[in-house]
């Protein structure tokens, strides 16, 4: 089957592209460096020729409000127009758990626009809402910390490994469209500060986790259960600690060059 992966060069897109190709599908990478731009529309209709499924794993260049809204609005319009013309059978998009519940956050408003745009398009669709990835922990430490301390609240947290996210994307993309939303999350729910403390302990980083009494995430006050599924969800199988232990024992990629 011919499948277009928008954002196929990104963190998530790269892995999804590889998995689909390994399954024998004809995968087209929809990214500017591969001649497909969903903002200008360049290369889009050619990439959609004979395509059955579109997987949207694109992202704005920054999560900043104006930039994200501009990106997802323009991309959304172009994608729907081109996909209707190409008679696409299934459009799958990766969104975020809690998107409806904190629309004061500009990036989530932008993601909500991305979701609603496809819901109202008439194109058969599946929306996957994921929790944060295990791989996102470094970003939390970078944004909420300094050289010596990181300030992390006790909000509910249930991260999922990128590997499990990409398995679910492939699975749902190859199934019939849900014309609805499914949620995915990691196997364990705990307080965010516990996850960050465990990570810092395993990787041996010399910084201290300070519990932040306010329910904050990335400096914003958010509902305590914003980042975890409220109802049914599909669980990833990789436990956070196991993922961190593998990561700490990994040989950095560039080390291989010397052997
Ligand atoms: N990271 C998380 O914890 C998390 C959790 C839940 C959901 N998500 C969602 O997952 C999605 C993918 O995130 P990610 O972290 O994998 O993304 P990423 O690594 O930032 O990659 C973004 C991709 O979008 C492509 N792109 C940018 N502008 C484009 C354009 N004009 N036309 C076509 N493609 C364009 C980029 O292409 P170039 O390489 O050419 O720039 C790149 O392939 C996002 O929508 C995000 O909201 C992420």
From TrEMBL:
Designated name of the protein: NmrA family transcriptional regulator
Pfam families hit by this protein: NAD_binding_10
Domain of life: Bacteria
The keyword Disulfide bond is assigned to this record: no
UniProt keyword annotations, A-Z: NADP
PANTHER family: BLL4366 PROTEIN (PTHR42748:SF3), NITROGEN METABOLITE REPRESSION PROTEIN NMRA FAMILY MEMBER (PTHR42748)
Ranges of residues in domain NAD(P)-binding: 7-172
Matching InterPro entries: NAD(P)-bd_dom, NAD(P)-bd_dom_sf, NmrA-like_oxidored
């Amino acid at each position: 089957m011919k499948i277009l992966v928008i954002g196929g060069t990104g963190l998530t897109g790269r892995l999804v592209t590889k998995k689909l190709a390994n399954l024998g599908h004809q995968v087209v990478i929809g990214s500017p460096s591969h001649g497909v731009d969903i903002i200008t529309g360049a290369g889009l209709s050619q990439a959609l020729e004979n395509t059955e499924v579109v997987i949207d794993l694109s992202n704005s260049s920054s999560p900043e409000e104006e930039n994200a809204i501009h990106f997802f609005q323009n991309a959304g319009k172009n994608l729907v127009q081109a996909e209707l013309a190409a008679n696409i059978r299934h459009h799958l998009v990766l969104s975020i758990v809690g998107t409806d519940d904190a629309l004061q956050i500009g990036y989530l408003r932008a993601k909500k626009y991305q979701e609603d745009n496809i819901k109202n398009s008439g194109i058969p669709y599946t929306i996957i809402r994921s929790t944060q990835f295990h791989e996102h922990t470094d970003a939390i430490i970078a944004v909420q910390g300094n050289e010596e301390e990181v300030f992390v609240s006790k909000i509910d947290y249930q991260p999922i490994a990128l590997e499990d996210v990409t398995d679910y994307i492939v699975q749902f993309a190859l199934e019939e469209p849900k014309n609805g939303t499914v949620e995915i999350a990691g196997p364990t729910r705990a307080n965010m500060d516990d996850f960050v403390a465990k990570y810092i302990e395993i990787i041996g980083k010399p910084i201290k986790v300070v519990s932040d009494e306010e329910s904050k995430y990335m400096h914003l006050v958010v509902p305590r259960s914003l980042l975890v599924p409220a109802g049914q969800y599909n669980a990833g199988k990789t436990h956070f600690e196991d993922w961190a232990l593998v990561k700490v024992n990994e040989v950095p990629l560039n080390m291989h060059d010397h052997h």
